[in-house]
């Protein structure tokens, strides 16, 4: 169990990675097949947890995450939440939960001295449109370039290079570093040399991203302690029972991989 309240009061760095559109079954298959060796050595024992997302596509899922609603276990009993907006007076919050007296996590962390930084991936983080400005505007600073987006086959390398550069700035100030990994978002058929996006090509995309995510986490944790949260925002349907895409309450969309650890 992670005591997020204690960790944040101590100013420990927080790395939050969302693997955009990554299905739980795809993440689990890649883990079990040995295709993600870097993540396998870093994830908690047993690898990915299966959890259920609060949003069926990128925008509502991330709005929920930044409001304190991370993916939940598919069971009645839940562990304490990592963070939560200050609730009404009648509600009791476990002492392990970090409660922020603010409208969202980013404002709450800034009130506790954190610098909040976003390395965007999909176009909801691009500021290319008014809607694409909503999520990045929540951070102290945000970064996005076309090479961070999924049509770029080496997007994760570019994102991790940027994240490591940013993590070295403002030493001594606690950092909340958020990365939206776009490689697992369509299009990803190119990882199998095809124009068609499938669960298999998403698994190949995750296998590609594995090296760079391992490099990111290993580099950061070599210098200091970090609380690390990794999850998907939602999954994607590739013809499952006739369904395609996201924004639908299909199990392959709602079931996502999740892991949280302190390293």
SSE topology sketch:
Elements (H helix, E strand, L loop, with lengths): L3 H6 L3 E7 L4 H9 L4 H6 L6 E4 L5 H8 L17 E3 L12 E3 L4 H7 L3 E5 L21 E3 L11 H13 L7 E7 L17 H23 L4 E6 L5 E4 L2 E3 L5 H4 E8 L1
Parallel strand pairs: 1-7, 1-8, 3-4, 5-6, 5-7
Antiparallel strand pairs: 2-11, 8-11, 9-10
Helix pairs in contact: 2-7, 6-7
Question: Would you mind describing this structure in some detail?
Answer:
- This protein has one domain (4-72, 81-262): 3-Layer(aba) Sandwich (Alkaline Phosphatase, subunit A).
- The chain contains eight helices and eleven strands.
- It has helices at 4-9, 24-32, 37-42, 58-65, 105-111, 155-167, 199-221, 251-254, and strands spanning 13-19, 49-52, 83-85, 98-100, 115-119, 141-143, 175-181, 226-231, 237-240, 243-245, 255-262.
- It has a seven-stranded mixed sheet. It has a two-stranded parallel sheet with strand order 3-4.
- A hairpin with a 2-residue loop joins strand 9 and strand 10 (243-245).
- Helix 6 runs parallel beside helix 7 (199-221).
- The longest helix is centred in the C-terminal third of the chain and has 23 residues, at 199-221.
- The model has no long low-confidence stretch (mean pLDDT 97).
């Amino acid at each position: 169990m992670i005591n997020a309240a204690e960790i944040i009061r101590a100013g420990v760095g927080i790395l939050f990675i969302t693997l955009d559109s990554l299905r739980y079954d795809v993440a689990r298959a890649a883990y079990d097949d040995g295709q993600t060796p870097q993540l396998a050595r870093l994830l908690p024992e047993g690898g990915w947890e299966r959890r259920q997302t609060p949003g069926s596509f990128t925008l509502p899922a991330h709005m929920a995450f930044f409001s304190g609603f991370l993916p939940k276990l598919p069971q009645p009993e839940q562990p304490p939440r990592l963070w939560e907006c200050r609730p009404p007076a009648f509600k009791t919050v476990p002492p392990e939960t970090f409660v922020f007296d603010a409208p969202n996590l980013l404002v709450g962390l800034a009130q506790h001295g954190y610098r909040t930084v976003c390395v965007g991936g999909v176009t909801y983080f691009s500021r290319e449109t008014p809607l694409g400005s909503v999520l990045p505007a929540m951070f102290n600073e945000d970064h996005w370039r076309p090479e961070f987006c999924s049509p770029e086959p080496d997007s994760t390398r570019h994102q991790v290079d940027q994240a490591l550069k940013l993590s070295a700035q403002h030493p001594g100030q606690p950092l909340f570093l958020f990365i939206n990994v776009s490689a697992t978002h369509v299009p990803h058929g190119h990882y199998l040399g095809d124009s068609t996006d499938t669960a298999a090509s998403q698994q190949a995309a995750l296998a590609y991203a594995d090296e760079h995510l391992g490099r990111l986490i290993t580099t950061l944790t070599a210098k200091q302690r970090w609380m690390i949260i990794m999850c998907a925002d939602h999954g994607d349907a590739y013809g499952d029972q006739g369904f395609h895409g996201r924004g639908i309450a299909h199990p392959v969309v709602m079931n996502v991989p999740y892991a949280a650890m302190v390293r």
